[in-house]
């Protein structure tokens, strides 16, 4: 991780030193290191340019007057505005699901969608909001610490909201019932998948993400069953079903989506990212289900999301070893770590951000109905299925198929839909923050 630290510290000299080591190691392993050689040339030139530039002393600036935090103490909401068919509420502080409550009031003449926000907004009364195809929007400071956004519309709406650090985003998507195609990775032919796989209550936003390309990998398949749970429940079956739900949700949101397999067939681990690279995908997601030995099966459960990096914990190493079984590669720990850093260093930070958004939104989607779902967290791990990806990539462990209760849930259609919905919302959140 020393090279990553050098990048984060913006230490050009240290970056150059580590790049030279990476290039040397890559050549020993017969890896194409051209992009690292190019990066080395850029950094070397940058360092030389700095030396030739005359030293410019910064102008002495008058100290900026300190602004007392009247806004952040008396008022907790900074601004409320509309953008791209969304209402955006920016807070002065971090927010959680406890900061918003949503309900619907229906009358003979109209539907009222009420969003009650925990907070105070100085400009509630003068703020005027408008959205296409929405009859009227009211912004009301109902109580000292309760702001209400009241949306009036004659037609039925299916709004969703996304919680993102200091921001809450309320979206009013357009729903279209269409039949989508799943692209077969090896033959590049299409096979139809009906919209029955799409959750009925999912909020869909056509065209908003039409320029974003997502590749979904349903793990295992064919002779590789993956983990096996009680009652011969196969990991390969669960993840394929979730992958199909996710495919259709993202497609109807407007993404360009591909899936590595749409039936029960085996694909070599090292070939799963080929489709993503060929399609110049923006992100790559590999879906899996976790497991532990029978002695621990009743006690360990929960969802986890991993991004590619040398494993820092025994737990991460164990999970990676399980998922890497169908791809036999032998390397020492030190060589493996260097190899992974060479291939994916530039994508680690972005992959970490994607993993965080997906994990948070999966939890939020599931815990509304299943309060006992455990947050296994976001972790680093050396997963070979992610190695070849030339874009931010993550591996999602949607639960423990070895756990008696969680295994039943993973085979439940409604639970699979909630998982897919959470993953899709996490992808939305990632692209909203990283356009």
UniProtKB/TrEMBL annotation:
One of its GO terms (molecular function) is N-acetylmuramoyl-L-alanine amidase activity. This is N-acetylmuramoyl-L-alanine amidase. Transmembrane segments: none annotated. The lineage of its organism: Bacteria, Pseudomonadati, Campylobacterota, Epsilonproteobacteria, Campylobacterales. PANTHER family: N-ACETYLMURAMOYL-L-ALANINE AMIDASE, N-ACETYLMURAMOYL-L-ALANINE AMIDASE AMIC. It is an enzyme of class 3 (hydrolase). Keywords: Hydrolase. Residues 273-428 form the MurNAc-LAA domain. It catalyses: Hydrolyzes the link between N-acetylmuramoyl residues and L-amino acid residues in certain cell-wall glycopeptides.
